[in-house]
Design a protein that fits this description.
The chain has helices at about 20-25, 45-60, 70-85, 105-120, 120-130, 135-140, 140-150, 155-170, 175-180, 195-200, 220-225, 225-240; strands at about 5-10, 30-35, 65-70, 90-95, 185-190, 210-215. The protein is of the alpha/beta class.
């Protein structure tokens, strides 16, 4: 029997290696795709990222798939679902949201672009990365934060700027959730500073078929902060 396909989309300031432990867990049962757009600087908007992911999926001969997106990966997953609903078996928003950026957040992203242009990747990643994690996790596991910083410090500054601008300009996509004829999973971190938990919770009831996992002690990096529980949540969702 042909394996069902699972597409794991990484977030901003990381690459597809963020999913390595999940790939190991899933690959016996599923065809796992982890498109990597972390070094591409030619995309103008989230739709361009979604087109890239779609081509990667079709290149593997996949007709239908579960698409799980972390943070910016969730924005890409929603754009993909809007353009190609026929390929969607299910959708997972992993610390992500269908809402567009608030004006305050748009201004913050512009400041981040200015910082990147002036200071480069390494300085930005060093400042940016610890805020993705819960404070207690940063104190308890400094080596994991260091690993993330070291891994992401090699990303091209132009690619980070492209991603930041694409996130800032993305439209609201609540209508994609409302129209979904497939199950939608929300993984929410109560301590998330990047995607406000109240936004994540406000979108939960939009799709007709949904599951939710709310993580009390997690910020924005559930696959690192609580790998066992987030993996178990995904496994249960995919089996459904």
């Amino acid at each position: 029997m042909e394996k069902k396909a699972v597409v794991l989309l990484h977030g901003f300031g990381e690459d597809s290696s963020i999913w390595s432990s999940f790939v190991s867990a899933f690959q016996d049962e599923y065809l796992v795709l982890t498109p990597d757009y972390s070094r591409i600087d030619s995309f103008k908007n989230i739709e361009d990222y979604a087109d890239f992911v779609y081509e990667e999926i079709k290149a593997k001969g996949v007709e239908k798939c579960a698409v799980i997106g972390h943070s910016m990966g969730g924005y890409i997953a929603l754009a993909l679902a809007e353009k190609h609903p026929e390929i969607m078996r299910s959708l997972g928003l992993f610390h992500s949201t269908a809402f567009e950026d608030s004006e305050e957040r748009k201004q913050m992203r512009l400041k981040n672009v200015s910082f990147l242009e002036k200071n480069g990747t390494e300085a930005f990643i060093r400042n940016f990365t610890p805020n993705l994690y819960a404070e207690h996790f940063v104190k308890q596991y400094p080596e994991k934060i260091s690993n993330h910083i070291e891994s992401s410090s090699t990303l091209p500054v132009t690619a980070l700027i492209a991603g930041m601008n694409a996130m800032r300009l993305r439209p609201d996509r609540k209508h994609v959730l409302k129209a979904a004829k497939y199950p939608v999973l929300f993984i929410i971190g109560e301590l998330d500073k990047s995607v406000p938990p109240e936004d994540s919770k406000a979108q939960m009831m939009i799709p007709k078929f949904f599951s939710v996992s709310i993580l009390d002690q997690v910020a924005h990096m559930g696959m690192v902060e609580e790998p066992e529980s987030t993996l178990a949540t995904l496994e249960k969702f995919l089996k459904k």
